[in-house]
UniProtKB/TrEMBL annotation:
Keyword Zinc-finger recorded: yes
Protein name: Ras GTPase-activating protein 4
Signal peptide: none
Ranges for domain PH: 489-595
Protein species of origin: Malurus cyaneus samueli
SMART domains in UniProt: BTK, C2, PH, RasGAP
Length: 690
């Protein structure tokens, strides 16, 4: 696209990637692809509802075509809609329907007849056009019928896809890296032997002299594959409510190996990768609440921070008083003050965050703390380092260094800000190492920061003591014997504008015309003025999540959430996203988590009811059936439910290590008999190339 500030963006060209093209490159395609001109006669969409039949006897036969309605037509006008009409061509004759103004979901209900030619070799062409008062009409698509086929069938009726008219050449090229990844996920019962096998091992705990399946997984997976296996296992056990027990088993097995206190959990073993993945899956909202303010401050201030004399650039700092150029020592001292200020604010946020840390994370750290303390009773310092090794070195520090990868920022930092973040991440690592007071950082130029680091280590020790405090255990036991379960994983969250409409539901009454913070979990869609919560809609009450026509609100990034309120009344909330990517992510997320709702709608109105009619199809019945079909099964981004045990089991079955835990022989299922895995060819499983 060519961006225009004062008018609509202009299209430069497009790239079309076919499934056949990707099938020729199993490991992905990387290279230049020719740009094709975007022909308005080729870029069509939508469907038309027609009934075509041959009437009469041999003496006077007629060809009748009933044009009923159309849906999801291309938007050709600046108002975000079209003025469609239908043109029918047969045997050199043309007929046209009336024009339906400002609608991509028109209803005509008109019938047209032609005298049937003898022999009936001509084709009937039904074209849809957008009428324009000034300039030429825009082509919206066509359907072509073979009259000979109609004679044999007698009648055809249904929804027909509109097709383009012609194609043009190429212009320019675009460099892309594309990969197609197929995943065939069977019903949940097909993976029950695998899930039960894994759960049985976790429930049994560590057994002396026994070869554990997770140990085999650790030893048979490659280093690059182990991270993904760890994510799959963590999500699977989160879905089973056994993630604490799974992590505890990994801690036991890791501590049973010959190891030293100062190198504990520093390798890329399955235990280390699983704990790291567990923190990312369950702790991202916590991470954002702790790091968000300090990261925003660093990005806004853009101060020059440098402590390494070999990298100090005097020209980047400027002058100090009476236009005197600062010395290298002054630059380093100023950088130390800035960095110490950032570090102090960050440590304040961390040490005060124990109550906000998710209970399931605190429970996992408590078990790690206890296991390491039992394994190294003479090195009580080791149990603190084991916790900070994960929390600081594998969670906080990487997020500080590259905040975009942890969704803390929308874009990567510039060179100056990136250097500040790197030094701050290094400082957090040194604090997390919790070296004794006499310890010094390897980089001697970090020595000016040593007093702040030693003070930070002492504060971190107190924080870990509160984080794994025994009062949490009593709270866990008071829950009527129930194990402490994970909080609902946040699938998608962000600010959305709530448009004013006639609705009276709790969401509309709360903030019509305002921005609210929305949070989607596996249980509900909650909303409120961040961080407070006004209300929530249970997933079982969400009936549809669909796009809204651009003309409805003058914006192409609006979606609608159709839901049942507490009184059993159907309401619709219109929520505006900031861009098309965010719109697609929200729609994909909502459709995925609500896909099994028994009350989902089969049709909806893509417009809004304004005045006395729907803007999309011009119907006057506000509660009538929708004019377009819903798209519950369509996901618009590469998005997956963070707690989908079936998918995780399928992915595990497709890993190299999965061969060891797949309870089937090469000849069939359990005990040589046909099992649930038998009909699944291994080349149909996702990511089998690993």
């Amino acid at each position: 696209m060519d961006e225009d500030a004062l008018s609509r963006d202009d299209v430069i060209g497009k790239v079309c990637i076919t499934r056949a093209m990707l099938a020729e490159h199993p490991k992905g395609y990387s290279g230049w692809v020719s740009l094709s001109e975007v022909d308005p006669d080729e870029e069509v969409q939508g469907e038309i509802h027609l009934r075509v039949e041959v009437l009469g006897s041999q003496g006077g036969r007629r060809l009748r075509c009933s044009v009923l309605e159309a849906r999801d037509l291309a938007r050709k006008d600046r108002n975000g809609a079209s003025d469609p009409f239908v043109r029918l061509r047969y045997n050199g004759k043309t007929q046209e329907s009336t024009v339906v103004k400002k609608s991509c979901y028109p209803r005509w209900n008109e019938t047209f007849e032609f005298e049937l030619a003898e022999p009936a070799g001509e084709k009937l062409c039904v074209e849809v056009w957008d009428w324009d008062l000034v300039g030429r009409n825009d082509f919206l698509g066509k359907v072509v019928f073979s009259v000979q086929g109609l004679e044999a069938a007698g009648q055809e009726e249904g929804w027909f896809r509109l097709w383009p008219d012609k194609r043009r050449g190429s212009l320019g090229s675009l460099q892309l890296q594309v990969r197609l990844r197929d995943e065939t996920v069977l019903p949940s019962h097909c993976y029950q032997p695998l899930v039960q096998l894994l759960c049985h091992e976790v429930k049994s705990g560590r057994q002396d002299g026994q070869v554990h399946l997770v140990t085999l997984l650790d030893e048979t997976t490659t280093a690059e594959c182990r991270q993904e296996v760890a994510v799959n296992l963590v999500k699977l056990f989160l879905g089973q409510g056994m993630v604490k027990e799974f992590l505890d088993l990994l801690f036991e097995l890791e501590l049973a190996k010959p190891c030293e206190p100062n190198t504990l959990f520093r390798s890329n073993s399955l235990a280390s990768k699983s704990m790291e993945s567990f923190l990312k899956v369950t702790g991202m909202p916590y991470l954002h609440s702790v790091l968000g303010p300090i990261i925003a401050r660093v990005f806004e201030e853009k101060k020059y921070v440098e402590l390494d004399p070999g990298k100090v650039e005097i020209k980047d700092v400027g002058c100090s008083g009476l236009h005197r150029v600062q010395t290298e020592g002054e630059v380093i001292e100023q950088g130390r003050q800035h960095l110490q200020s950032y570090l102090g604010e960050l440590l304040d946020a961390i040490v005060g965050s124990a109550p906000a840390c998710p209970p399931v994370i605190r429970a996992a750290f408590r078990r790690l703390f206890q296991r390491v303390g039992e394994r190294f009773p003479q090195h009580q310092h080791a149990k603190f380092v084991a916790v900070t090794g994960f929390l600081c070195l594998r969670f906080f520090s990487p997020a500080v260094m590259t905040p975009k990868l942890f969704q803390l920022r929308d874009a990567h930092a510039d060179a100056r800000t990136s250097r500040t973040l790197l030094l701050l991440a290094k400082a957090i690592q040194l604090v997390g190492n919790m070296e004794p007071a006499a310890g010094r950082p390897k980089e001697t130029w970090l020595s000016p920061l040593l007093p702040a680091l030693q003070q930070g280590s002492a504060r971190m020790r107190d924080f870990i003591t509160r984080l794994v405090g025994t009062e949490e255990e009593s709270g866990e036991q008071e829950g009527e014997g129930r194990p402490l379960g994970p909080p609902p994983a946040v699938v998608k969250e962000g600010l959305l504008l709530v448009h004013k409409t006639r609705g009276k539901g709790p969401l509309l009454a709360a903030a019509a015309g305002k921005k609210l913070h929305f949070s989607l979990t596996g249980e509900s869609l909650s909303f409120g003025k961040s961080p407070s919560r006004i209300g929530a809609i249970a997933l079982g009450d969400i009936l549809a999540a669909e796009k809204v026509e651009e003309k409805s609100f003058g914006n192409s990034h609006v979606m609608q959430v159709v839901y049942m309120d507490t009184g059993g009344q159907q309401e619709t909330a219109y929520l505006q996203c900031k861009c098309v990517n965010e719109l697609n992510q929200w729609l994909s997320s909502l459709r995925k988590v609500c896909g099994n709702n028994p009350r989902v709608l089969r049709s909806y109105h893509p417009g809004v009811f304004r005045g006395d009619k729907w803007s999309c199809c011009h119907q006057r019945d506000r509660t009538g059936l929708g004019c377009d079909r819903t798209r519950h099964g369509v996901t618009l981004q590469d998005w997956s439910d963070p707690l989908d045990p079936t998918v995780e089991a399928q992915r595990l079955e497709g890993t190299p290590g999965g061969r060891l835990i797949n309870p089937r022989s090469d000849r069939g299922g359990l005990g040589g008999e046909p099992g649930p895995f038998s009909p699944v060819p291994r080349d149909s499983l996702a990511r089998v190339d690993r």
